[in-house]
Design goal:
Elements lengths: L1 H5 L3 H19 L5 H13 L7 H8 L8 E2 L2 H18 L3 E9 L10 H17 L5 E6 L2 E7 L3 H15 L7 E8 L6 E3 L1
Parallel strand pairs: 1-3
Antiparallel strand pairs: 2-4, 2-5, 3-4, 5-6
Length: about 190
Protein backbone atom coordinates (compact mmCIF):
# COMPACT_ATOMS: atom_id res chain seq x y z
CA UNK A 1 0.00 0.00 0.00
CA UNK A 2 2.85 2.37 0.83
CA UNK A 3 4.40 1.65 -2.56
CA UNK A 4 1.13 2.46 -4.33
CA UNK A 5 0.87 5.73 -2.37
CA UNK A 6 4.47 6.55 -3.29
CA UNK A 7 3.62 6.05 -6.98
CA UNK A 8 0.56 8.29 -6.71
CA UNK A 9 -1.83 5.38 -7.35
CA UNK A 10 -4.21 6.41 -4.58
CA UNK A 11 -7.36 4.67 -5.78
CA UNK A 12 -5.52 1.33 -5.96
CA UNK A 13 -4.02 1.93 -2.49
CA UNK A 14 -7.48 2.70 -1.10
CA UNK A 15 -8.90 -0.51 -2.64
CA UNK A 16 -5.96 -2.50 -1.27
CA UNK A 17 -6.67 -1.07 2.19
CA UNK A 18 -10.40 -1.89 1.97
CA UNK A 19 -9.64 -5.47 0.84
CA UNK A 20 -7.10 -5.95 3.63
CA UNK A 21 -9.49 -4.69 6.31
CA UNK A 22 -12.18 -7.05 5.00
CA UNK A 23 -9.78 -10.00 5.21
CA UNK A 24 -8.77 -9.08 8.77
CA UNK A 25 -12.38 -8.81 9.89
CA UNK A 26 -13.85 -11.75 7.94
CA UNK A 27 -11.09 -14.31 8.31
CA UNK A 28 -9.39 -13.34 11.55
CA UNK A 29 -12.19 -11.53 13.37
CA UNK A 30 -9.87 -8.71 14.37
CA UNK A 31 -9.14 -5.11 13.50
CA UNK A 32 -6.14 -4.36 11.29
CA UNK A 33 -2.86 -3.55 13.01
CA UNK A 34 -1.84 0.04 13.82
CA UNK A 35 0.66 0.38 10.95
CA UNK A 36 -2.07 -0.34 8.37
CA UNK A 37 -4.41 2.22 9.96
CA UNK A 38 -1.60 4.80 10.00
CA UNK A 39 -0.88 4.05 6.33
CA UNK A 40 -4.55 4.67 5.54
CA UNK A 41 -4.40 8.02 7.35
CA UNK A 42 -1.32 8.86 5.26
CA UNK A 43 -3.23 7.83 2.15
CA UNK A 44 -5.96 10.35 2.97
CA UNK A 45 -3.36 13.10 3.33
CA UNK A 46 -1.85 12.24 -0.07
CA UNK A 47 -5.02 12.66 -2.15
CA UNK A 48 -4.77 15.63 -4.47
CA UNK A 49 -7.78 16.04 -6.71
CA UNK A 50 -7.91 18.10 -9.88
CA UNK A 51 -9.75 21.42 -9.64
CA UNK A 52 -13.48 21.02 -9.87
CA UNK A 53 -16.72 22.87 -9.19
CA UNK A 54 -18.49 22.58 -5.85
CA UNK A 55 -21.49 20.95 -7.52
CA UNK A 56 -19.26 18.25 -9.09
CA UNK A 57 -17.56 17.62 -5.77
CA UNK A 58 -20.90 17.36 -3.97
CA UNK A 59 -22.23 15.03 -6.68
CA UNK A 60 -19.15 12.80 -6.27
CA UNK A 61 -19.73 12.58 -2.50
CA UNK A 62 -23.43 11.64 -2.76
CA UNK A 63 -24.48 8.08 -1.92
CA UNK A 64 -26.14 5.97 -4.58
CA UNK A 65 -28.41 4.23 -2.10
CA UNK A 66 -29.50 5.56 1.30
CA UNK A 67 -31.39 2.61 2.81
CA UNK A 68 -30.57 1.68 6.39
CA UNK A 69 -27.74 3.07 8.52
CA UNK A 70 -24.50 4.42 7.13
CA UNK A 71 -22.11 1.44 7.31
CA UNK A 72 -18.39 2.21 7.16
CA UNK A 73 -14.93 0.96 8.10
CA UNK A 74 -13.55 1.60 11.57
CA UNK A 75 -11.14 4.41 10.55
CA UNK A 76 -14.02 6.26 8.83
CA UNK A 77 -16.25 5.58 11.85
CA UNK A 78 -13.62 7.04 14.17
CA UNK A 79 -13.47 10.21 12.05
CA UNK A 80 -17.25 10.54 12.13
CA UNK A 81 -17.23 9.95 15.90
CA UNK A 82 -14.73 12.78 16.39
CA UNK A 83 -16.69 15.17 14.16
CA UNK A 84 -20.02 14.35 15.85
CA UNK A 85 -18.48 14.79 19.29
CA UNK A 86 -17.22 18.26 18.37
CA UNK A 87 -20.56 19.24 16.82
CA UNK A 88 -22.59 17.91 19.74
CA UNK A 89 -20.45 19.76 22.28
CA UNK A 90 -21.20 23.07 20.59
CA UNK A 91 -24.83 22.36 19.64
CA UNK A 92 -25.95 20.56 22.79
CA UNK A 93 -27.38 17.61 20.85
CA UNK A 94 -26.83 14.18 22.32
CA UNK A 95 -24.90 11.45 20.56
CA UNK A 96 -24.63 7.95 21.98
CA UNK A 97 -22.02 5.32 21.19
CA UNK A 98 -23.37 1.78 21.41
CA UNK A 99 -21.27 -1.39 21.45
CA UNK A 100 -23.08 -4.61 20.54
CA UNK A 101 -21.31 -7.86 21.50
CA UNK A 102 -22.51 -11.40 20.80
CA UNK A 103 -22.54 -13.41 24.04
CA UNK A 104 -23.04 -17.07 24.88
CA UNK A 105 -25.76 -18.47 27.17
CA UNK A 106 -23.72 -17.43 30.25
CA UNK A 107 -23.31 -13.84 29.06
CA UNK A 108 -19.65 -14.22 28.06
CA UNK A 109 -18.45 -12.76 24.74
CA UNK A 110 -18.15 -15.47 22.08
CA UNK A 111 -14.58 -15.69 20.76
CA UNK A 112 -14.54 -17.78 17.58
CA UNK A 113 -16.04 -20.69 15.71
CA UNK A 114 -18.64 -21.50 13.09
CA UNK A 115 -21.51 -20.61 15.40
CA UNK A 116 -20.05 -17.13 15.97
CA UNK A 117 -19.69 -16.68 12.20
CA UNK A 118 -23.39 -17.48 11.73
CA UNK A 119 -24.45 -15.21 14.60
CA UNK A 120 -22.20 -12.42 13.34
CA UNK A 121 -24.01 -12.45 9.98
CA UNK A 122 -27.36 -12.41 11.77
CA UNK A 123 -26.28 -9.49 13.96
CA UNK A 124 -25.20 -7.58 10.85
CA UNK A 125 -28.65 -7.99 9.31
CA UNK A 126 -30.42 -7.26 12.60
CA UNK A 127 -28.58 -3.97 12.97
CA UNK A 128 -29.29 -2.97 9.37
CA UNK A 129 -33.00 -3.60 9.90
CA UNK A 130 -33.25 -1.95 13.32
CA UNK A 131 -31.05 1.13 13.08
CA UNK A 132 -32.12 4.42 11.46
CA UNK A 133 -30.66 5.83 8.26
CA UNK A 134 -29.16 8.78 10.15
CA UNK A 135 -27.06 6.48 12.36
CA UNK A 136 -23.54 5.20 11.67
CA UNK A 137 -22.44 1.56 12.02
CA UNK A 138 -19.03 -0.13 11.93
CA UNK A 139 -17.93 -3.67 12.55
CA UNK A 140 -15.32 -3.54 15.30
CA UNK A 141 -14.33 -7.20 15.31
CA UNK A 142 -15.95 -10.57 14.92
CA UNK A 143 -19.14 -10.49 16.97
CA UNK A 144 -18.86 -6.78 17.82
CA UNK A 145 -20.39 -3.69 16.23
CA UNK A 146 -20.25 0.00 17.04
CA UNK A 147 -23.22 2.30 16.42
CA UNK A 148 -23.43 6.10 16.67
CA UNK A 149 -26.97 7.20 17.54
CA UNK A 150 -27.44 10.95 17.08
CA UNK A 151 -30.06 13.39 18.39
CA UNK A 152 -31.90 10.88 20.56
CA UNK A 153 -32.47 10.23 24.25
CA UNK A 154 -31.25 7.24 26.26
CA UNK A 155 -34.75 5.71 26.20
CA UNK A 156 -34.61 5.66 22.39
CA UNK A 157 -31.25 3.86 22.59
CA UNK A 158 -32.99 1.21 24.70
CA UNK A 159 -35.71 0.94 22.04
CA UNK A 160 -33.02 0.45 19.38
CA UNK A 161 -31.46 -2.28 21.51
CA UNK A 162 -34.83 -4.06 21.76
CA UNK A 163 -35.32 -3.84 17.98
CA UNK A 164 -31.88 -5.33 17.31
CA UNK A 165 -32.48 -8.14 19.81
CA UNK A 166 -35.93 -8.76 18.32
CA UNK A 167 -34.46 -9.34 14.88
CA UNK A 168 -31.48 -11.27 16.29
CA UNK A 169 -33.28 -13.84 18.47
CA UNK A 170 -34.76 -16.92 16.83
CA UNK A 171 -36.93 -19.29 18.84
CA UNK A 172 -35.42 -20.41 22.15
CA UNK A 173 -31.92 -19.34 21.27
CA UNK A 174 -29.57 -19.15 24.26
CA UNK A 175 -27.05 -16.75 22.77
CA UNK A 176 -27.74 -13.04 22.72
CA UNK A 177 -26.33 -9.57 22.38
CA UNK A 178 -24.86 -7.49 25.21
CA UNK A 179 -25.18 -3.72 24.83
CA UNK A 180 -23.06 -0.95 26.28
CA UNK A 181 -24.03 2.68 25.71
CA UNK A 182 -22.09 5.89 26.38
CA UNK A 183 -23.15 9.50 25.84
CA UNK A 184 -20.05 10.72 23.97
CA UNK A 185 -20.44 14.30 25.20
CA UNK A 186 -20.45 13.15 28.84
CA UNK A 187 -17.43 10.92 29.43
CA UNK A 188 -18.67 9.73 32.82
CA UNK A 189 -22.05 8.36 31.69
CA UNK A 190 -21.86 4.64 30.93
CA UNK A 191 -24.88 2.40 30.73
CA UNK A 192 -24.60 -1.38 30.30
CA UNK A 193 -27.91 -2.76 29.19
Amino acid sequence: MEALIGMGRYEEAHQYYADTVKIYLDQRGMRPFRKLIDSFRNLGNQFVHPRNSLESIRSDMEEQQMNGPYVCSYPVFRGIYRALKRMSMSSGHTVYLMLCTIVDSKGNPMQEGKKLDELDERLTESIRKAVCGSDVVSRYGKGQYLILLANIELEECCATEKKISGYFRIGRQRTGVKYQIINITQNNENQSL
